[in-house]
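Good morning,

Attaching, inline, the backbone tokens for the sequence recovery test we're adding to the shared suite. The designed sequence is right after.
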């Protein structure tokens, strides 16, 4: 090999080494820059609430057990205090614990905490439409309209109560078909509760054997479960990556689109025979509002918002109340002595031939206490619906910058040993004093303030009538050789894991009890 060739080879090698060195340096420099930028972005402001330090880019992702997030958080609250900061990707969150601080945020300073945070998942699903996750003018207009329309279609009137009583009779007939044998109450209860909001929004109810509607309820249940999964948290942290990858988030989006199509189909049906002089339901009323605002470009009353608001009512009006009722039957099946007391009180106040109504509530203090205790223990929305700080503010001396996500710790409130005699035990006495029902300030299942649940009155009505109607007709027991548990599934709400119950008609239950007594 000649000398020139050797020089050329050495030169090529040196150039390659230098190029490789420059590439590695460039990559290392880029990585270092990203880490420094992330550190500066995550650096806590002065007087920011304390919390565990997170990892680059993912923050406190690994600090939580996503199968029981609300319970694991209580350990961090004990360590860091009643204002606890956590970070997930670009989202800075603060957990608020204790009634005084919750009232400070949701009531006294509520104008700074009225907005909803917009995560990538929420942006895809809601787009600041509807009533649940919207903010600003859209939320104000939609909320005012929804509350007015619910009142116009029966909320607070005898007509809606009669509709719930009628649906309770349908549910009883459906459960009677089981003839006391083990069955899963999940979708029967979902169907019954959903029919109430469907009668208001769509002007119709759906039969329990309607295959299409049962499929719809399953899509809804899957969505509620998937929204709290690890994959959804990862999507919120790395949306630019996750949107190209397969996984549950794709199914969530598909299910949402199916639900949108169902509502769109119902709207098209309404348009075909819509009569502005005859308002049949929520969709008719909304179509009229769209027509009234047709020349107002700034109005939020448009068809996209009609779909979102209708779907919000359908989702919220189905999942929360039906989940609470499922917990109620489960708790009573596991606490037969409490179930006996409820039925004894019902029998002493209401004739077996008479269906319970809200006029009976004051004469049923123990039953009312049991319903409230179910809500406290079930704690189905443990961190409330999130809020966002709309302007820099301070709470308890801590600085909360604009854009911070706020979560109120209802688990800590509903299980506070300073507030409840037996916080971890199902005990209706928490809501009784000298035999009379007692309201508790530390009981906030519907939240408080202007963004409290707009369907609270309807939910309370449904819970009371469905619960008392079922307990009047049936005794709920575990199936033979099957053990019930309080294990839960974490989703949008905390729901019981799949289980079966036996609904024994009351006459049969008494005879069975007498035989066992002998």
């Amino acid at each position: 090999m000649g000398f020139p060739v050797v020089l050329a080879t050495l030169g090529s090698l040196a150039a390659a080494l230098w190029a490789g060195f420059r590439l590695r340096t460039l990559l290392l420099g880029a990585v270092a820059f990203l880490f420094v930028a992330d550190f500066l972005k995550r650096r806590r402001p002065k007087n920011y609430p304390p919390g565990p330090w997170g990892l680059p880019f993912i923050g406190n992702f690994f600090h939580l057990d996503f199968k029981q997030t609300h319970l694991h958080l209580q350990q961090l609250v004990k360590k860091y205090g009643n204002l606890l900061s956590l970070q997930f990707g670009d989202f800075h969150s603060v957990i608020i614990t204790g009634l005084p601080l919750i009232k400070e945020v949701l009531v006294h300073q509520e104008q700074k905490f009225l907005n909803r945070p917009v995560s990538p998942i929420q942006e895809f699903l809601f787009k600041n439409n509807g009533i649940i996750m919207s903010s600003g003018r859209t939320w104000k207009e939609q909320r005012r309209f929804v509350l007015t329309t619910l009142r116009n279609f029966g909320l607070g009137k005898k007509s809606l109560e009669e509709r719930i009583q009628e649906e309770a009779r349908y549910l009883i007939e459906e459960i009677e078909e089981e003839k006391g044998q083990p069955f899963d109450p999940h979708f029967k209860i979902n169907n019954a509760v959903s029919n109430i909001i469907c009668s208001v929004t769509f002007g119709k109810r759906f039969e329990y054997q309607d295959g299409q509607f049962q499929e719809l309820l399953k899509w809804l249940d899957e969505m509620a479960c998937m929204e709290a999964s690890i994959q959804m948290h990862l999507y919120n942290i790395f949306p630019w990556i996750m949107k190209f990858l397969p996984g549950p988030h794709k199914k969530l989006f598909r299910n949402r689109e199916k639900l949108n199509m169902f509502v769109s189909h119902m709207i098209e049906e309404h348009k075909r025979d819509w009569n502005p002089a005859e308002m049949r339901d929520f969709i008719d009323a909304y179509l009229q509002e769209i027509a009234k605002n047709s020349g107002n470009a700034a109005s939020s009353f448009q068809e996209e918002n009609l779909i979102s608001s209708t779907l919000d009512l359908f989702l919220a009006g189905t999942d929360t109340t039906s989940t609470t009722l499922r917990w109620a039957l489960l708790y009573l099946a596991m606490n037969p002595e409490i179930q006996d007391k409820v039925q004894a009180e019902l029998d002493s106040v209401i004739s077996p031939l008479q269906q319970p109504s809200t006029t009976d509530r004051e004469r049923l203090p123990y039953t009312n206490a049991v319903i409230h205790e179910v809500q406290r223990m079930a704690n189905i929305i443990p961190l409330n619906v999130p809020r966002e700080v709309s302007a820099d503010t301070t709470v308890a001396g801590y600085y909360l910058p604009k854009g911070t996500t706020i979560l109120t710790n209802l688990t800590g409130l509903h299980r506070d040993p300073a507030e409840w005699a037996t916080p971890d035990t199902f005990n209706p006495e928490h809501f009784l004093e000298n035999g009379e029902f007692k309201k508790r300030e530390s009981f906030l299942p519907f939240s408080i303030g202007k963004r409290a649940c707009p369907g609270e009155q309807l939910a309370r009505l449904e819970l009371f009538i469905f619960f008392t109607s079922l307990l009047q007709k049936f005794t709920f027991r575990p199936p033979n050789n099957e053990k019930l548990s309080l294990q839960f599934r974490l989703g949008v709400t905390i729901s019981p894991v799949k289980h079966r119950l036996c609904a024994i008609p009351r006459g049969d239950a008494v005879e069975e009890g007498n035989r066992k007594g002998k």
